[in-house]
Amino acid sequence: MSLQSSFARAVLRPEAETPAPLTAPDERTVSTRFNVYRNNVTVSLVESLTEAFPVIAKLVGENFFTAMAREFVRDNPPTSPVMAFYGDAFPDWIADFPPAASLPYLGEVARIEQSRREAYHAADAQPFAIERLSKVPPEDLPLLRFGVHPSVRFVTTRHPALAIWARNSEAAHLIAAPAGEVLITRPYWTLILNAAPSGTIAALSTLGQGRSLGEALGDIDDAPSILATLFSSGAVIERTSNHD
Amino acid sequence: MPFTQLPQSAGVGFKPAHYDDLTEAGAVTWLEVHAENYMLDGGPRRAMLAELSERFAISAHGVGLSIGGEGPLDRDHLKRLKALMDWLKPAQFSEHLAWSSHGGAYLNDLLPLPYTRATLETVSAHISEVQDVLGRRMLLENPSSYLSFTESTLSETDFLGELAHRTGCGMLLDINNVFVSATNLRLSAEAYLDAYPLEHVGEIHLAGHHAQEIEGGTLLIDSHGSEVADPVWALYERTIAKTGPRPTLIEWDNDVPDFATLEREAARANAILQRRAAA
Fold first, then answer.
1. Considering Cα of B239, then B241, then B247, then B251, what sign does the dihedral take?
2. Can you tell me the ipTM of this complex?
3. Is the minimum CB–CB distance between B144 and chain A shorter than 8 Å?
4. pLDDT for A171-187, tens place per residue?
5. Of the candidates A24, A124, A150, which has its C-beta nearest B147's C-beta?
6. How far is Cα A33 from Cα B215, in angstroms, rounded to an integer?
7. Are residues A132 and A213 in the same domain?
8. Owning domain of residue A60
9. What is the model's pTM?
10. CATH topology for B10-15+25-278?
11. Distance (Å, whole) CA B6 – CA B31
12. Model confidence over B190-225: pLDDT tens digits?
């Protein structure tokens, strides 16, 4: 094993031995000194998850969260130095974490938190203003095509995860949000979370394939409320390419 | 017009919480940011930096290139860095004599390497590659050490001097790291600085550390969570007497204080720089 392989392994595993080729003025202190790196690595990774998943930390409490995150970082260290998205595997991992099985909504809440981070740092784009639709003759509306805003993220929940998230995030308007589709966007500098009508995700995905508004909403009873959600959340942008 | 160089005065590590304090230039005359924090597609964080870069010279400080890694540099990361440099056009770019990635894992810490002829070859090849890709000279920062490697055959100062000689890179001298390492390894900080390639220094870092009691003595931890210690200020003044004024960064990354506290530290550095400039 190369020097850095054994160093990297020992840094992540408290049970691993201190790499042999290390020395210090007082040999008795080598492992204490090596523990500075162990501590830096684990503590900094756990801290980054605590910052990224504040609602999960609140729901399970600081001690439980730290223990859970320590276990996660050991087997799932970051794969990139860009830490803004570290933890993308955490929601699925939490959902399968046996000690948290009594909180079945935890994975879904974590998915909302991770999606917010992704939307926040996504590319910027001008959302399509709903006022512009008023200039379109009604019979032409179904023919319109749109692009999907780069910040659009969605989560499908079986539990009222958005309401749980909202109760722990001072988002009073969402504390009664039902289970179902959660739409997350950042049209300008602020994130918008929506309890979206059922069918919103499918409609956005159809629009994203370059198909028309008529094709995206045609068969859906709830089309007006989906349309209102898409435009009020800034989820659609002008379509730039011209292929039909 | 982007700023093409850092002023020979004090700057601070930028924290978004201090954005509103930066409406006018005071003791803080330039800003440093961690490059990796801005490798994003868009969003408020980048918009804030773009706005600041119109008013302040910016130093981009990388923490993730793993220049001291045994294996090849991460080409994807180098590409992200190049894209950031092309977008931000910072006055300066610096990285660390350390490694942080191995076997596809990023460990989020600056880890040490032995100083040998073999590692010198690897690190100088990495620095040259970075400078070629970025099309600019970079600065390399000395690490804080807690232990050493039995296989090391070169002193850190000789290693750094040789890297500057081979690659043309500049030096980012972190004086807190010098003090922390010297204390931990029972060496003389003054002797280190006397042997250090001061002629290549393009920037100086000052930061706080804390002490931890260990068997048979004290271990200093480079924690960036407090004021710069007095012995570090003394070493700084001694260094500036030799080099002349250099852009000087106050680094405070943990338990970040209010901006006024950072400004006081910056003013203290400026006073030392001004005394030297007048001498």
1. positive
2. 0.94
3. no
4. 999 999 999 999 999 99
5. A24
6. 10
7. yes
8. 1-103
9. 0.95
10. TIM Barrel (3.20.20)
11. 9
12. 999 999 999 999 999 999 999 999 998 999 999 999
